[in-house]
Amino acid sequence: MEAQVRREVSSLIDLEHQNGEVLAQKRSEALAEQVNLDRSSRQLRQIRSYAPVVRSAWSSYS
Known about the structure:
By secondary structure, the protein is mainly α.
């Protein structure tokens, strides 16, 4: 009985370790994606700063 409990506990510890590794990988991927999104956002702001402001040729007559 005790040997079975020890095996189960060992198995649970192994699963926790694996989950920790998967979580660390997912965090790393999420951080890399956030860096890419931040860079894209900065680039879009730079592009918009070069574009001239276009005024609408339409007028409202109401």
